[in-house]
Task: inverse folding
């Protein structure tokens, strides 16, 4: 059975190959190891193999894992990548480096309120439903543009880019990744400071090469690192 270290090495090689094919610098793509449902012991194994950034989707599981003695005092960077309800924000706001799943203006407003209370600045991404599937969270692309001015005005939070979960079919996925990239370009045109809009979080274990071709700056990989859940 392959070790987590060997899987991480293989994925980094795939990232490098996809970047070379796309004419991109591999340093421009960050690997987020999706550790949801996996124990702290496996997170520690990945950390010991050199992985720093990890993605969690469930608030209670994240809180328990981040406080596990195996991971205490380690320079991990936690990303919250799941759907985030407004009433859960206060639990994670000072514990994560980036929130990927803000999918409503009202949730962004609550994030801003909590950041103000703590006198901190929080980085976040807007989740966009590029596939149009009713089962998926995320703002409609048109809603992103119509809400942009209100989002940019919110204090103590910084919109850094966009996130999506694409369709399972590869051709559709590539179209949706392209749509997200073009949407980010539209946002930059109306942003007070376009230089802050740098991130496209898209692509998972089965489609990250396609996402890299369309400009992904972060890919979220779980199964290919930790195995099936």
Result:
């Amino acid at each position: 059975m392959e070790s987590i270290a060997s899987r991480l090495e293989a994925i980094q090689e795939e990232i490098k190959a996809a970047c070379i094919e796309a004419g991109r610098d591999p340093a421009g793509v960050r690997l987020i190891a999706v550790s949801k449902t996996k124990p702290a012991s496996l997170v520690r194994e990945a950390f010991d193999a050199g992985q720093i950034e990890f993605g969690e989707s469930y608030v209670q599981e994240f809180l328990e894992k981040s406080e596990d003695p195996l991971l205490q005092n380690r320079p991990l960077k936690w990303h919250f990548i799941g759907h985030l309800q407004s009433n859960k924000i206060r639990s994670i706001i000072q514990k994560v480096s980036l929130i990927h799943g803000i999918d409503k203006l009202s949730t962004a407003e609550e994030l801003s309120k909590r950041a103000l209370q703590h006198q901190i600045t929080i980085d976040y991404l807007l989740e966009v439903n590029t596939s149009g599937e009713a089962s998926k969270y995320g703002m409609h692309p048109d809603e992103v543009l119509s809400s942009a001015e209100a989002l940019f005005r919110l204090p103590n939070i910084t919109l850094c880019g966009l996130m999506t979960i694409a369709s399972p079919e590869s051709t559709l996925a590539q179209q949706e990744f392209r749509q997200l990239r073009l949407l980010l370009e539209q946002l930059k045109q109306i942003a007070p400071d376009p230089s802050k809009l740098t991130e496209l979080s898209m692509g998972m274990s089965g489609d990250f090469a396609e996402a890299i071709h369309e400009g992904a700056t972060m890919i979220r990989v779980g199964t290919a690192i930790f195995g099936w859940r």
